[in-house]
Amino acid sequence: MTRKKVVVGMSGGIDSSVAAMLLVEQGYDVIGATLKIWEEGEYLDGEWHDRSCCKIGLARYAADRLNIPYFVWDAHKEFKNWVVDEFCNEYMRGRTPNPCVRCNEMIKFALLIEKAIGIGADYIATGHYARITCNKENNKFYLRRGADTEKDQSYFLYRLTQNQLSRIIFPLGEYTKPEVLDIAGSLDLPLDEIRESQEVCFVTQDGYQEFLSNKVPASVSPGKFVTPSGNVVGEHKGIAFYTVGQRRGLGISAGERLYVININAPKNE
């Protein structure tokens, strides 16, 4: 019987490495792959440094430990066009983007599936804490929360389509993070050198305002705080510093609580 071929998106982190390991143990024909979306980092003072959330050196090491093929596919142009540029454009429109959702939709799943199909794979897999179920009566796939409610990542994946869900495996969906850490011990990964990504990967060094000031200076140009009735009540530092619903950090002294209820990007108000 021919084994099903699965391409595992490997970031070099614990979760994706364990996901690959579990699939190997389940008998799949596993291939590791990393989409190179940013400049590769440097190895300094015993630590892995990389601006991207994907560490190619660690991913290759984990693949070697599992004795599976490993590929690096260049995706930096797609990442710039679909994620970074859109991130900047959204701020210029007066909106607060979530680039991780966009990256999951366009890069980590859509592009990875395209690459996987290109080498004859049946599925892709990632280390996300989420589950997928299929209703046999209507043949529809449903995205479910992971068993570990504290680590659940299903909310980042809400844009996945039916076609994409049909080609995805989430090996960690039934596991908790402590269980995954226990499994990771057998891979002999340098756990003290692996940090979980918590920020936007391409702006972690200096903060997103600094990033935007270099890419789109207009988004950090001072402007006016204006009430719905048209009264100017203060000056803001730039529309990129604020989001609808924000109350704190406005720098306005008033006898009542003030909130950002709208951002008028064309007027910089």
List keywords for this structure.
5-stranded parallel sheet, 7 helices, single chain, 30% helix, alpha/beta, 269 residues, elongated, Rossmann fold, 2 domains, two-stranded antiparallel sheet
Count up the helices. Answer: 7
What is the percentage of strand-forming residues? 15-25%
Model regions low in confidence, pLDDT < 50 over at least 5 residues = 40-51
Give the overall shape: elongated
Give the fraction of residues assigned to helices.
25-40%
Number of strands: 11
- Distance linking N and C termini: 64 Å
Order of SSEs: EHEEEHEHHEEEHEHHEE
So what's the CATH class of the largest domain? Alpha Beta
Summed over residues and divided by their number, the pLDDT gives a mean of 84
Q: Structurally, how many domains make up the residues? A: 2
Classify the secondary structure makeup into a structural class: alpha/beta
CATH homologous group name of the largest domain: HUPs
Sequence of strands across the biggest β-sheet: 5-2-1-6-9
CATH topology of the largest domain: Rossmann fold
Assembly annotation: single chain
Major beta sheet summary: 5 strands, parallel
Task: Detail the topology: elements first, then pairings.
Elements lengths: L4 E5 L4 H12 L3 E8 L6 E2 L2 E2 L7 H11 L3 E5 L1 H17 L6 H20 L4 E3 L4 E6 L4 E6 L16 H4 L2 E2 L7 H8 L23 H8 L7 E4 L5 E5 L33
Parallel strand pairs: 1-2, 1-6, 2-5, 6-9
Antiparallel strand pairs: 3-4, 7-8, 10-11
Helix pairs in contact: 1-2, 1-6, 3-4
